[in-house]
Specification:
Helices cover 41% and strands 11% of the residues. It is of the alpha/beta class. It has 5 domains: 7-204, Rossmann fold (3-Layer(aba) Sandwich); 212-340 and 458-495, Rossmann fold; 349-438, Orthogonal Bundle (Arc Repressor Mutant, subunit A); 505-605, Arc Repressor Mutant, subunit A (Orthogonal Bundle); 641-734, DNA polymerase, domain 1, CATH 1.10.150. It binds adenosine-5'-diphosphate and zinc ion. Adenosine-5'-diphosphate binds at residues 17, 20-21, 24, 41, 43-49. Adenosine-5'-diphosphate (ADP) binds at residues 17, 20-21, 24, 41, 43-49.
Length: 737
């Protein structure tokens, strides 16, 4: 039975608000309908109303579980002021007070009762609740139930059981933590939507930050990073530069100081005093720029931060958004930029490996310790121990393995006063590896999860949609669909007519654009920007001829426009989101769905069309401004990476084949030049194969199948033994490199 009052009336009468905020109305309706609901709203998003208002309308008590005991009394008082009778139960009450409150609950004197989570430890208490008519269980700070979260509280795990005891009332779980896996965890741990109810409804909203502009700048080295950093500091003045390691923090602080920038460093390796000092300097505005690791931020509430620059890629979208979100707390425009260099991913991978050692590393560390500590306690640093472990694995991973082995009772570690290191000692009787209580499955799951999170932030760097949309979509924010175009991020700006020369193309320019796009489309994400430019201008470059690009129907289509124009046009098409660039070491380009539509003449997009001038010599010219890379092709064939792997495998196959053919010289099969061309072009079909210089129909017949098989096997999208792909699928759904 629901009261005759409508939610709107209660909102006005009791809460004094005219309208609902964001998703409040829909959430409240679902609660009144008896659904299990998970609400994810940022702090200040108006979560309390989502259960306080229904409490007025539902028949029975609304029990609120909240770990914020200090706030309970305030909440109760403020509800009383609104004419809503409420009380709280936590460990500050005496036994008689507790009994009195339960008795009053029984008499129906309260609409809401706040209860501290640890109360659910007592089965007597839970049984005392059972006979009461509980209409709704509201679980505040619900992320505390998730072991993936940052604030896990074991008491929360008891709630599922308590729920059964009190007759499975509908649940509303609330949190500001928007991580997708925390959400899933809350639903599972609380068994939401079970016991014959409809599937739980999840509402995520309010995470958009309308005053922040996001951007990503691809950089190739630290020099470019430094230039960008200086430019951002110069225009933003007050802000934070986040680096991934302590060493980088120190290095960049020096670099900036050497250039006259007033800045301070902050990282976990500094003494407590140094850190407090640095933090105060930043907070009071004495120093305008902080260079810091992610250790900096907790409690930073300087409101006028105008920029957040990420010098390196962080480990996840949530880490990025949390750090970037420190900009513009005052509501004024602020700028968030990420500098993206593919090589930086390695640092994050190292952190992931380090925090979650593999079984092999744990086993190897176990074995090594049994050896090196056999003669008694050993005083050695972790880095020395790591060197003794087979294959000298990641030092951080060995440290984690030591920690696990210590917890499992295999070793004891003692800090030696005066000495700098720990003493490591075996605990007798020695426990064999398989008797140790180590949760490998959890370690594996955590590693896989961290890897996925890393992949998603890499995808952010390479995405072609609105940056704010990407982030909201990642969090599952229901408002994401209304925010496909924030109008402030680098991608949105690039599509705004009038911004930096962005305009609609003329009919003649449209044809040029279609030619360029069709070349990118035909090469199906196998080549980078440079090679596309060469193909379009009809370059006679050796690599172009060797890979058979001169056989393409789009070869030379834009010869009259010249390399500079074509290069810049492709740039503009990337910015306009018609062409996607892979986030690889050797970035390749492919068409986006929008690019296809433009190529077919179904769509027209505004873009910054470069100035056209007739080319006197249609070959690659270098760009004097030095800003962008000239579209020349490096002479040196890659020594590592996927192309190199394909080349090595083909070469190995050629060696065996030559031997099997009675020791004929290898070049009789394919020349080195042909092998390189194969590795670069990575043909998929017999027809593709014939485009490679040095392969005629006879060779295609004789070696084609073996060649294509090797290329296929070496270029499957799963590039890592971890089982997930670092390679973004191209618009056509496959990417060769
Ligand atoms: P959260 O728990 O999500 O951090 P609160 O429930 O404390 O947020 O609400 C944040 C602020 O928003 C409070 O001051 C609250 O009174 C106000 N608020 C909530 N709902 C509304 C509304 N519909 N209209 C106006 N203000 C609201
Ligand atoms: Zn945008």
């Amino acid at each position: 039975m629901v009261s005759v009052l409508s939610p709107q009336m209660v909102l006005e009468r009791h809460f004094g608000f005219r309208e609902f905020l964001g998703g409040q109305e829909r959430i409240i309706q679902s609660v009144l309908d008896g659904d299990d609901v998970l609400v994810v709203l940022p702090t200040g998003g108006g979560k309390s109303l989502c259960y306080q208002l229904p409490a007025q309308l539902l028949e029975g008590i609304t029990v609120v579980v909240s770990p914020l005991i200090a706030l309970m009394k305030d909440q109760v008082d403020s509800l009383a002021a609104k004419g809503i009778p409420a009380t709280f139960i936590n460990s500050s009450l005496t036994d008689s007070e507790l009994e009195d409150r339960i008795a009053r609950m029984r008499r129906g004197e309260f609409r809401l009762v706040y209860i501290a989570p640890e109360r659910f430890k007592s089965s007597r208490f839970v049984s005392a609740l059972a006979p009461l008519s509980i209409a709704l269980l509201a679980i505040d700070e619900a992320h505390c139930i998730s072991q993936w979260g940052h604030d896990f509280r074991p008491d929360y795990l008891r709630l599922k059981h308590a729920l059964q005891e009190i007759g499975q009332p509908p649940v509303i779980a609330l949190t500001a933590t928007a991580t997708p896996e925390v959400r899933t965890d809350i639903i599972t741990q609380l068994a939401l939507g079970q016991a014959g109810r409809r599937p739980p409804l999840t509402f995520v909203s309010g995470f958009a930050r309308h005053n922040l502009s996001f951007a990503v700048t691809p950089v190739r080295n630290n020099r470019e990073k430094l230039e960008r950093m200086l430019a951002v500091i110069q225009s933003g003045k007050t802000g934070i530069v986040y680096c991934s390691t302590r060493k980088k923090v120190e290095r960049q602080t020096e670099e900036l100081r050497a250039r006259g920038v007033h800045c301070m460093a902050y990282h976990g390796g500094m003494t407590e005093e140094q850190r407090t000092d640095a933090q105060t300097q930043f907070m009071t505005g004495t120093v305008p720029v902080a260079v810091a690791t992610n250790a900096f931020g907790m409690g930073i509430d300087r409101a006028d931060v105008r920029f957040i620059l990420h010098f390196d890629i962080p480990g996840s979208v949530e880490a990025y958004y949390q750090e970037a979100g420190r900009a513009g707390r005052d509501g004024e425009p602020a700028y968030c930029e990420l500098l993206f260099n593919y090589a930086d991913i390695r640092t994050q991978e190292f952190f992931v490996e380090g925090a979650n050692p593999t079984r092999t590393i744990i086993a190897d560390t176990h074995k090594t310790l049994a050896d090196i500590c056999a003669l008694g306690p050993l005083q050695q640093s972790i880095s020395t121990i790591a060197k003794s472990v087979i294959g000298s694995p990641n030092e951080m991973a060995v440290a984690s393995a030591l920690h696990l082995l210590e917890r499992a009772g295999f070793i004891r570690r003692n800090y030696t006063p005066g000495g700098r290191t720990y003493t490591t000692e075996l605990i007798q009787p020695l426990k064999p590896l398989d008797s140790l209580d180590i949760d490998y499955e959890r370690l594996d799951a955590k590693r896989a999860q961290s890897e996925q999170k890393l992949q998603r932030i890499i995808d952010y760097a390479g995405c072609s949609e609105c940056r704010q949309f990407y982030i909201l979509n990642y969090f599952g924010d229901t408002e994401a669909q209304d925010h496909r175009f924030c109008g402030r991020c680098d991608h949105c700006l690039a599509r705004l007519v009038g911004h930096k020369g962005v305009r609609l193309p003329t009919a003649e320019e449209t044809i040029i654009i279609q030619k360029a796009l069709s070349c990118v489309g035909r090469l199906r994400g196998r080549f980078g920007r440079g090679r596309i430019t060469q193909t379009l201008i009809g370059s006679r470059d050796k690599e172009v001829l060797d890979t058979g690009l001169d056989q393409q129907s789009t070869y030379g289509l834009l010869a009259e426009e010249g390399a500079d124009f074509v290069w810049s046009l492709i740039d503009a098409l990337i910015t306009a989101q018609c062409i996607a660039v892979s986030a690889d070491k050797y970035p390749t380009v492919s068409l986006t769905p929008l690019g296809y539509a433009v190529a077919r003449g179904q769509e027209t997009v505004p873009l910054a069309i470069p100035a056209r001038r007739p080319a006197s010599n249609p070959s690659i010219r270098s760009d004097k401004s030095g800003k962008k890379a000239p579209p020349s092709v490096p002479d040196d064939f890659p020594k590592t990476g996927q192309i190199a792997t394909v080349f090595d495998r083909l070469k190995e196959w050629r060696r065996r084949k030559a031997a099997a053919m009675g020791g004929v010289p290898a070049f009789v099969i394919y020349s080195d030049k042909t092998l390189k061309a194969l590795a670069l072009a990575q043909p998929r079909t017999q027809a593709d194969l014939l485009m490679i210089r040095g392969i005629g129909s006879a060779k295609a017949q004789e070696y084609g199948k073996a060649t294509l098989d090797i290329i296929h096997q070496s270029t499957r999208p799963v590039t890592k033994k971890t089982g997930y792909s670092r390679v973004r699928p191209s618009a056509e759904g496959r990417k060769i490199r």
